[in-house]
Design goal:
With about 400 residues, this protein is α/β, with parallel strands linked by helices. It contains 14 helices and 21 strands. The protein folds into 2 domains: about 180 residues, Flavin prenyltransferase-like (Rossmann fold), CATH 3.40.50; about 200 residues, 3-Layer(aba) Sandwich (Rossmann fold), CATH 3.40.50.10300. The chain is elongated, with a radius of gyration of 24 Å. The structure holds flavin mononucleotide (FMN). The site of flavin mononucleotide (FMN) has 16 residues, from helix 2 and helix 5.
Amino acid sequence: MVRIPVSDQMNDIELKSYLPLLGKEIVIATSGSLSVYRVPDLVRDLRREGANVRVAMSPDSAKLVSPELMKWASGNDVATGITGNVEHISLLEGGNKTLLIVPATYNTIGKMASGITDSVTTALFSHAIGNGNPVIAVPVMHLSMFTNPVMTRNMEFLREIGVRFVNPVELQGKAKIPANDSVIDETIRSFAGVQAGKKVLVITGNGYSEIDPVRVITNRSSGETGYWLSRALYRMGNHVTVLGNVPRELPQQIKISEAFSVKEYFDGIKFLLKEAYDMVVVPAAIPDFTVEKSSKKLSSSTKQEIQLVPQAKLLEAIRKLHRGVIVPFRLTSKDDRDHLEHFRDIGAEAVVANHYDTGTTPFGSGRGRYLFVSLGSEEEIIAETKEESCSKIASLLAGLVS
Ligand SMILES: Cc1cc2nc3c(=O)[nH]c(=O)nc-3n(C[C@H](O)[C@H](O)[C@H](O)COP(=O)(O)O)c2cc1C
C-alpha cells in the first residue's frame, strides 16, 4: 500500500489500495453555508484517494466551522484571508491543481460571476479561472435561491467560462450538499483533461426470470463491474448512462435506468437506443433461460419440474438498434478461446473475458482478472479491486472510440 507521509501522526489517513488522485493537488475553498460541516469528511475522503488537499475559508464559513478542524482534516495550514503570502495566488502555484468551491453560497457564486473578490474564496476563483485551473463548484442553498433567475443566469455564465458544477441534492425543500462520491468523481475527471467525452451506455447487473409470483431464477452477478466501470468511464470524461442494477448508489452525474427482469432490460434498450451512443458495454448477466411462469405460487409439498427455455439474446437486440461499438463481457471457462469469434454475429469490436474456474470468484468487489481481447491483441488485467481493474478496462475501451 502506498502511503503519503504526514508530519502529524494524528492526521494519518488509511489510504485505499487504488489511488486515482495520487500526486494530485486540490485546493478546497469554502463559503458560508451550514453544510460546511460536511467538508472535513470530504477532505479526508479525497486524501484517502491519494490527494494532497489544502483548505481556504471565507470569513463567514470560518464562523460556522473552525479552521482548526480543517487543519486537522487536511494536515495542512488553512487560509482564512489574504495576507502578505498572497494566498489566492500561492495556493494554486505549481502544477495542475483543481479548485473545488464547496459549499458555494448564493453570495459567492454571484460574486464569482460578477468579478468581486472580497474573500479568499472569491479571490482564488478569479486567479484560477484566469490561470486555467479546473474549477468545480458545489452550490448549496434553499431551492428558492438555487432556482431563481439570478442564480440560473450566474450558473449559465460560469458554465460558459468553464466552471463545472456538481448539483446539490434536493431534500426537504433545500438544495443539500451531494454525496462525497459525486464530488470525488468530478474531481478525478477534472484532472483527465478530456474536452469532449464519448457517449457510453453500460448495461449491468443480474436480471431474473420469474418462476411463480414470488420466486425467480437469477445468477450470482453482483453488478460491481458495471458500477465501477461506469464510474471509471465518467472519471475519464465520458457521458455515461447505466441500464440495469448496481449494488449501491452511483454518483449523480451517471444516469441510471433501472432494470431487473429480462423484459425490463429489453424495454430499456429499446427506449435508450433511440438515441445514438458511441459505445455500448455489456457486463450484465441477463438470464440465458426463461421459465414458463406459474400464475399460482408453486407448492413446496410436491416435486416441481422447471423447464429452462433459451432466452432471446440481448446482444442481438442491441446490435439491431445500435451502430456504434459493442463490447460484451464473457464469463467463461479458462480453456475457452476465440472470444471475438464467439460474438462474430453481432460484430463486437472487443470482448472482456473472465473465468469462473480459476480458483477466485469473478463475482463481488474483490480481485479482478480479465482478458481484454480486440482485433489482433490480447491484454491480461489483474488487480486487487474491481475499481482498479475497471479503471484499466475503461482505458482500453477508450482506445476503441478515440
Ligand atoms: C447559519 C447560516 C447558514 C447559512 N446557509 C447558507 C446556505 O446554505 N447557502 C447560502 O447561499 N447562504 C447561506 N447563508 C448565508 C451566507 O452565509 C451569507 O450570504 C454570507 O454573506 C456568505 O458569505 P460567503 O459567500 O463569502 O461565505 C447562511 C448564513 C448563516 C448565518
